[in-house]
Amino acid sequence: MQKPKPQWVSNPEELRAELSRRPPGEIGDIKKRLRRKASADIDRRVAEIGPKIEAAIDCKACGACCKVLEPQLSSEDVKRLARLESKTKEEFLEARTNSLENGTLFLKATPCRYLCGNSCSIYAQRPESCADFPHLYRAHFMFRRLTWEHYTLCPIVFNVIEQLLSDVPSND
Ligand code: SF4
Ligand code: SF4
User: Fold this and answer.
1) How far apart are CA 93 and CA 99, in angstroms?
2) pLDDT in tens, 52-92
3) What's the mean per-residue pLDDT of the chain?
4) Are residues 56 and 74 in the same domain?
5) Cis previous bond, 134, omega within 30
6) What atom in ligand 1 is closest to the CA of residue 119?
7) Which atom of ligand 1 is nearest to the CA of 71?
8) Are residues 48 and 94 in the same domain?
9) pLDDT digits over 107-128, tens only?
10) Is residue 150 part of a domain?
11) Does 130 contact ligand 2 (Cβ within 6 A)?
Protein backbone atom coordinates (compact mmCIF):
# COMPACT_ATOMS: atom_id res chain seq x y z
CA MET A 1 0.00 0.00 0.00
CA GLN A 2 1.26 3.51 -0.85
CA LYS A 3 2.43 5.57 2.17
CA PRO A 4 0.23 8.61 2.93
CA LYS A 5 1.84 11.88 1.77
CA PRO A 6 3.13 13.91 4.74
CA GLN A 7 1.28 17.12 5.58
CA TRP A 8 3.72 19.79 4.35
CA VAL A 9 3.32 23.51 4.95
CA SER A 10 4.63 26.20 2.61
CA ASN A 11 4.72 29.37 4.73
CA PRO A 12 4.56 30.60 8.37
CA GLU A 13 0.76 31.09 8.28
CA GLU A 14 0.18 27.51 7.19
CA LEU A 15 2.67 26.34 9.82
CA ARG A 16 0.84 28.20 12.62
CA ALA A 17 -2.51 26.83 11.44
CA GLU A 18 -1.16 23.28 11.27
CA LEU A 19 0.44 23.53 14.74
CA SER A 20 -2.82 24.82 16.22
CA ARG A 21 -4.46 21.56 15.14
CA ARG A 22 -1.77 19.40 16.74
CA PRO A 23 -2.26 17.88 20.22
CA PRO A 24 -0.37 19.37 23.20
CA GLY A 25 2.84 17.48 23.96
CA GLU A 26 3.18 16.41 20.35
CA ILE A 27 6.93 17.13 20.22
CA GLY A 28 7.60 14.58 22.98
CA ASP A 29 5.74 11.91 20.99
CA ILE A 30 7.58 12.81 17.79
CA LYS A 31 10.98 12.56 19.50
CA LYS A 32 10.03 9.17 20.99
CA ARG A 33 9.00 7.87 17.57
CA LEU A 34 12.10 9.14 15.78
CA ARG A 35 14.37 7.65 18.47
CA ARG A 36 13.56 4.26 16.95
CA LYS A 37 16.04 5.20 14.24
CA ALA A 38 19.79 5.67 14.72
CA SER A 39 20.93 9.31 14.70
CA ALA A 40 23.26 8.62 11.73
CA ASP A 41 20.35 7.13 9.74
CA ILE A 42 18.25 10.21 10.48
CA ASP A 43 21.11 12.48 9.35
CA ARG A 44 21.48 10.48 6.11
CA ARG A 45 17.75 10.77 5.44
CA VAL A 46 17.81 14.53 6.17
CA ALA A 47 20.65 14.85 3.63
CA GLU A 48 18.42 13.10 1.06
CA ILE A 49 15.17 14.95 1.64
CA GLY A 50 16.46 18.35 2.83
CA PRO A 51 17.46 19.80 -0.56
CA LYS A 52 14.08 18.94 -2.09
CA ILE A 53 12.20 20.53 0.81
CA GLU A 54 14.42 23.63 0.83
CA ALA A 55 13.84 24.04 -2.90
CA ALA A 56 10.06 23.89 -2.37
CA ILE A 57 9.97 26.72 0.21
CA ASP A 58 10.49 30.36 -0.74
CA CYS A 59 12.59 31.81 2.09
CA LYS A 60 12.41 35.24 0.45
CA ALA A 61 8.65 35.25 1.00
CA CYS A 62 8.91 33.94 4.59
CA GLY A 63 11.51 35.68 6.76
CA ALA A 64 10.12 34.10 9.96
CA CYS A 65 13.62 33.36 11.32
CA CYS A 66 14.79 36.94 10.60
CA LYS A 67 11.96 38.33 12.74
CA VAL A 68 12.85 36.52 15.95
CA LEU A 69 16.44 35.21 15.88
CA GLU A 70 19.73 37.07 16.30
CA PRO A 71 22.19 35.41 13.91
CA GLN A 72 25.67 34.50 15.09
CA LEU A 73 28.47 36.48 13.41
CA SER A 74 31.91 35.28 12.37
CA SER A 75 34.84 37.68 12.24
CA GLU A 76 34.50 37.68 8.42
CA ASP A 77 30.82 38.64 8.78
CA VAL A 78 31.79 41.56 11.03
CA LYS A 79 34.37 42.84 8.53
CA ARG A 80 31.97 42.50 5.61
CA LEU A 81 28.98 44.11 7.33
CA ALA A 82 31.09 46.94 8.78
CA ARG A 83 32.30 47.70 5.23
CA LEU A 84 28.73 47.55 3.96
CA GLU A 85 27.68 50.16 6.53
CA SER A 86 30.78 52.31 6.03
CA LYS A 87 31.69 51.79 9.70
CA THR A 88 34.93 50.80 11.33
CA LYS A 89 34.95 47.34 12.85
CA GLU A 90 34.83 48.92 16.32
CA GLU A 91 31.88 51.13 15.41
CA PHE A 92 30.02 48.18 13.96
CA LEU A 93 30.68 46.01 17.03
CA GLU A 94 29.46 48.75 19.34
CA ALA A 95 26.34 49.65 17.35
CA ARG A 96 25.21 46.36 15.89
CA THR A 97 26.27 43.40 18.00
CA ASN A 98 25.65 41.60 21.27
CA SER A 99 28.23 39.23 22.69
CA LEU A 100 28.42 36.36 25.13
CA GLU A 101 31.11 36.09 27.82
CA ASN A 102 32.98 33.62 25.61
CA GLY A 103 33.19 36.23 22.83
CA THR A 104 30.52 34.75 20.55
CA LEU A 105 28.93 37.60 18.60
CA PHE A 106 25.35 38.05 17.46
CA LEU A 107 23.65 40.63 15.31
CA LYS A 108 21.72 42.82 17.76
CA ALA A 109 17.96 43.30 17.76
CA THR A 110 14.92 41.61 16.27
CA PRO A 111 13.45 41.83 13.74
CA CYS A 112 16.79 41.98 11.95
CA ARG A 113 17.66 45.49 10.75
CA TYR A 114 18.43 44.09 7.29
CA LEU A 115 14.98 42.57 6.87
CA CYS A 116 12.88 44.42 4.31
CA GLY A 117 9.32 43.10 4.20
CA ASN A 118 9.94 39.36 4.39
CA SER A 119 13.24 39.46 2.48
CA CYS A 120 16.86 40.02 3.39
CA SER A 121 18.08 43.30 1.91
CA ILE A 122 21.72 42.13 2.04
CA TYR A 123 21.06 38.58 0.83
CA ALA A 124 24.33 38.13 -1.05
CA GLN A 125 26.30 39.44 1.94
CA ARG A 126 24.25 37.96 4.78
CA PRO A 127 26.05 36.32 7.74
CA GLU A 128 27.30 32.77 7.27
CA SER A 129 24.91 31.48 9.93
CA CYS A 130 21.96 32.97 7.97
CA ALA A 131 23.13 31.26 4.79
CA ASP A 132 23.36 27.95 6.65
CA PHE A 133 19.99 28.32 8.42
CA PRO A 134 18.08 26.16 9.39
CA HIS A 135 21.24 24.08 9.85
CA LEU A 136 19.70 20.87 8.51
CA TYR A 137 22.98 19.17 7.73
CA ARG A 138 24.81 19.49 11.04
CA ALA A 139 25.37 16.16 12.81
CA HIS A 140 22.72 14.69 15.13
CA PHE A 141 19.79 16.57 13.60
CA MET A 142 17.20 15.09 15.89
CA PHE A 143 19.26 15.48 19.08
CA ARG A 144 19.98 19.18 18.60
CA ARG A 145 17.99 21.50 20.86
CA LEU A 146 17.69 24.05 18.06
CA THR A 147 15.97 21.57 15.76
CA TRP A 148 13.04 21.48 18.17
CA GLU A 149 13.03 25.24 18.73
CA HIS A 150 12.92 25.73 14.96
CA TYR A 151 10.24 23.06 14.43
CA THR A 152 7.54 25.56 15.43
CA LEU A 153 9.18 28.48 13.59
CA CYS A 154 10.55 27.30 10.27
CA PRO A 155 8.43 25.62 7.57
CA ILE A 156 11.53 23.81 6.25
CA VAL A 157 12.30 22.16 9.60
CA PHE A 158 8.64 21.27 10.14
CA ASN A 159 8.44 19.62 6.70
CA VAL A 160 11.68 17.70 7.20
CA ILE A 161 10.34 16.26 10.44
CA GLU A 162 6.99 15.42 8.83
CA GLN A 163 8.86 13.56 6.10
CA LEU A 164 11.04 11.73 8.64
CA LEU A 165 7.90 10.67 10.52
CA SER A 166 6.40 9.24 7.38
CA ASP A 167 9.37 6.82 7.29
CA VAL A 168 8.68 5.51 10.81
CA PRO A 169 5.57 3.44 11.60
CA SER A 170 3.27 5.18 14.09
CA ASN A 171 2.00 2.03 15.84
CA ASP A 172 3.80 1.30 19.14
S1 SF4 B 1 20.96 39.30 7.79
FE2 SF4 B 1 19.33 38.86 6.34
S3 SF4 B 1 19.07 36.61 6.43
FE4 SF4 B 1 20.19 37.24 8.28
S5 SF4 B 1 18.64 37.58 9.88
FE6 SF4 B 1 19.04 39.55 8.87
S7 SF4 B 1 17.48 39.72 7.27
FE8 SF4 B 1 17.61 37.56 7.88
S1 SF4 C 1 14.89 29.35 6.87
FE2 SF4 C 1 12.83 28.75 7.53
S3 SF4 C 1 12.06 30.41 8.84
FE4 SF4 C 1 13.84 31.18 7.70
S5 SF4 C 1 12.98 32.17 5.89
FE6 SF4 C 1 13.46 30.06 5.29
S7 SF4 C 1 11.58 28.89 5.66
FE8 SF4 C 1 11.37 30.85 6.75
Assistant:
1) 9
2) 999 999 998 899 999 999 999 999 999 999 999 999 999 99
3) 93
4) no
5) yes
6) 7
7) 5
8) no
9) 999 999 999 999 999 999 999 9
10) yes
11) no
Q: Which domain holds residue 88?
A: 70-132
- Based on the domain organization, do 108 and 155 belong to the same domain? no
Residue 39 within any structural domain of the chain: yes
Ligand 1 pocket check: which of 62, 67, 81, 115 to mutate, most ligand atoms within 8 Å of Cβ? 115
Residue 84 shares a structural domain with residue 122: yes
In the prediction, which pLDDT does 147 show?
A: 95
- Looking at residue 4, its pLDDT comes to 60
How many domains does the chain divide into? 2
Q: Is the CB of 154 under 6 A from ligand 2?
A: yes
Same domain, 55 and 139: yes
68 touches 107 (CB < 8 A): no
Q: Which of 56, 51, 65 is nearest to 154 (CA)?
A: 65
User: Which CA distances in Å does 58 have to 9, 54, 103, 118?
Assistant: 11, 8, 33, 10
Q: Is residue 153 part of a domain?
A: yes
